Amino acid sequence: MTKETAQHVIVIGASMGGLLAARSLADYYQQVTVIERDIFPLPGENRSGVPQGRHAHGLLLKGREAIEQFFPGITQELENQGAIPAHLQEARFFINGGYLHDTDNDLTGLLVSRPLLEAQVRQRLLALPNVRAIENCHVLGLVTTKDNTCVTGVKFIQRHSSSEEEILNADLVVDATGRGSKSPTWLTNLGYQKPEEEQIGVDISYTTRLYRRQPEHLQGDTAIIVSGAAPNWRVGVLIAQEAENGVSSQESRWIVSIGGYMGDRAPLEEAGFLEFAKSLPTQDIYNTIKNAQPLSGLIPYKFPSSLRRHYEKLRKFPAGYLVFGDAICSFNPIYAQGMTVAALEAIALQNCLNQGTDNLAKRFFIAASKVVDCPWSTAVISDLRVPQVQGKRSLMVRLMNWYTSKLQTAAQQDLVLAIAFLSVTNLMAAPSSLMGLGIIFRVLLRNLWQQSKLPAIGKQLSVTS
Ligand SMILES: Cc1cc2nc3c(=O)[nH]c(=O)nc-3n(C[C@H](O)[C@H](O)[C@H](O)COP(=O)(O)OP(=O)(O)OC[C@H]3O[C@@H](n4cnc5c(N)ncnc54)[C@H](O)[C@@H]3O)c2cc1C
Questions:
Q1: How high is the pLDDT of residue 461?
Q2: Quick one: 154 and 253 in the same domain?
Q3: Cα torsion for 155, 158, 160, 161, to the nearest 10°?
Q4: Assigned domain for 56 exists
Q5: 20 lines ligand 1 (CB under 6 A)
Q6: CATH number, domain with residue 356
Q7: Structural domain containing residue 204
Q8: What is the pLDDT of residues 229-248, one digit of tens each?
Q9: What pLDDT digit, counting tens, does each position of 223-233 carry?
Q10: Is the CB–ligand 1 distance for residue 217 below 6 Å?
């Protein structure tokens, strides 16, 4: 398809999903209009439509790569504003009771606050000549042909004003309004079926605080990621990010988010928060923040369930309409997958548009479901390790979790396994890459070796004590 054949596309929602969808569409449509409920804040500042922006946001390696592909030079632009290059060897991953082996490869990510990342992506997007944004407008619903077979635009209203409802027409409308998307309801109202939904209740809570980062903290390392394991399922991250607005770019901050499953929540007062940090599977986050200077209050967030909507299974869907990003799938945030999946969906959308617009929704939803499949199943299988999380633990799920725990234990001693594991969690490699014979062999050998060493160490300890 060329720009001449398709005219106007509306993207509803200007968060990471909407911005990346708009960027991919800008190569194919003459005019892209992004409609956002919020007024855009100053770069680096939070806004109410993205409450999760106040909490730690890790950008996976694959996500940084995809965003850089859409906006060449953006990594450097963000670094110029204080974002910190994330060399894997400067990050510490505490998983399954121990730290992963130090890595020595040159995979580099980016540590940046969510508001700054979004602001820079938005600035680059809106610099494209065929993209514009309408802020402060609430989309109320869809406009369709009389027979409801085709979406032809949206109805919206200016917020905080007494103005009338307006209509904007388009050849394509994309819903990127996040997890709370009204698409299932809008579709039902038009006489279509709702997509089938899958939910895994995790009841994750985050409590977040910002601190001043000092050069001596963590010997200069830039992140600690702590995953829970039986019997302590508490989780936490401490991630370096750019300093707040108005502070020298030589300074930086820590963002600390800690929490747990099934309502296990870090208290919203200083002493209780620090006590919770101390109770994580490792005390390294606690040791870093206990004397650090707080830069914010304690900010809570509750995430009830991972939620996937299977639009690809619908047999009928109106033409001229797509759903995108978290509106398709909202992942347990501890795996930091949402923005990267949105970027990969944007690439999938371009691949679909390369084949034209015929049957676009069906083709896109199938492509998006392939993007979502791996991160979804990795997250769900991992969540099912937590005994209180409800869900079917098939033999395959139990086998996968048994193998993954052996792999993680082995990766604490083995550089190759640590890199293989991090490549999968960063969506740089498929989970199947951990099932190659060479990897399985290393996992088994390391575990056998470690087990054979344990009694010997035990004996030594009892002799010396
Ligand atoms: C606590 C938490 C932590 C997270 N951490 C990470 C992380 O570490 N790494 C990562 O990659 N992802 C993370 N995520 C996920 C990530 O935030 C999302 O995947 C990402 O923002 C993409 O979502 P989205 O743009 O599809 O939807 P959203 O971010 O929810 O944005 C929806 C947008 O639509 C607008 N909108 C809604 N309704 C309307 C309407 N009717 N009219 C106009 N505008 C409307 C909203 O104002 C908003 O701007 C986290 C999520 C949570 C909840």
A1: 38
A2: no
A3: -100
A4: yes
A5: no
A6: 3.50.50.60
A7: 200-303
A8: 999 999 999 999 999 887 87
A9: 999 999 999 99
A10: no
